[in-house]
Amino acid sequence: MFSLPNLLVLAAVYRGPLKITVEQVDAPQIDEGEVLIRVRAVGVCPTDVKIYKRGSNSVRSPIVLGHEVSGEVVESKDPAFQVGTRVNVAADAPCLTCSNCRRGLENICTSMLSIGMNVDGAYAEMMRVPREFLDRGLVLPLPDEVSWEEGALIEPVAVSLHALSLVRPRSQDLVVVVGDGPNALIHVKLLKGVFGVRKLVVVGMKDHRLRAAMDFGADRVIRVNELENESNSLLNEGVDVLDLTVSNRESVAEAMSLMTSGTRMVIFGGATLDVPLHVSANKVHYGQLTLTGSTGTTVNEYREAHRLLSGRKVDLRGLVSHRFSLSEVKKALEFAESQEGLKSVVIP
Fold it and tell me: Are 176 and 258 in contact (CB under 8 A)?
């Protein structure tokens, strides 16, 4: 154990929409029960892109963004973690005492500590991990055989598990995933490898991502501009689960057109306030439809995601297509928005 007084480190500091600069800052100081990690990999999340492009009322600034993180403990004031331990850190730590937490809704805790939102995040050489994360079991060792990049994918696996658990995919189900981004590809892996669904169809726009969806286990892919011609066959078979990993006006309208008797739909991709949801109460009632949103994850789902990825029950090698240095963080965010690759990571 050692301390890091007067050490300067690099961090990408966010100060508002389109304002992010890599600067020298003082190394974070830790208190009792906390650890300091050397960030080894951080995934570029669509949430980071949205915050960078248009800001968020949920984000204080200045702040360091980045919440999909793996790293190595370089200072510890928690006896459970020794210097040199490889770890993954969850993105959020619920309070466990607010009304939502008491109702089992810890993923929408009203007093959530969130890395990259109200706690400095991982687009930096070093990151302080608050005590609440360690006390709640939200910092877990990373096996040596799991790469830093794979470790940074545990958080998106956890939020994906949460979303899918809300619509309870079954082995006999036909599932349609709307969207072909990196989170959609994680959903494909989970739906086939963990839930074992009978048939999985991915609807998307980018040929290279649709090819990746097939490689990851999808049974069929459909380009968005061909969906109208293909929808009748899906409707005739009956769509059991609709998984919206993209929630813009067009994708929501497309998904609603695929709802049949008993369809269970989850909105996973973040939607802006101006995206309408048009559905007849009559159709919901007589068609026995289920519609739900999903955000975040729970402590237990994070631990399950860690178990699945650490044990390679979910193998995401091949998902990361592009890597950027910390000095290229702005480029990484803009590239992720372009949808030209699969998953991007920053290597500080």
Answer: yes
Kind and range of the H or E element at 336? helix 329-338
pTM for this model (two decimals): 0.95
Q: Domain with 199 in it: what CATH number?
A: 3.40.50.720
Return the exposure string of 135-159: e unless at least 16 CB atoms fall within 10 Å of the residue's CB, then b.
ebebbbbbeeebbbbbbbbbbbbbb
Whether 52 and 142 share a structural domain: yes
Q: Which residues of the chain have pLDDT under 50?
A: 1-2
**Residues 166-215: tens digit of each pLDDT:** 999 999 999 999 999 999 999 999 999 999 999 999 999 999 999 999 99
pLDDT value, residue 294: 97
CA of 330: how far to CAs of 47, 327, 336, 338, in Å? 14, 8, 10, 13
pLDDT of residue 2: 47
Rounded to 5°, the CA angle 302-306-309 comes to 135
Residue 124 belongs to domain spanning: 8-153+316-347
Q: Per the structure, how many domains does the chain have?
A: 2
Q: Are 10 and 24 in contact (CB under 8 A)?
A: yes
Task: Count other Cβ atoms within 10 Å, centred on residue 325.
Answer: 13
Identify the CA nearest to 138 among candidates 184, 193, 91, 171: 91
End-to-end CA distance of the chain: 22
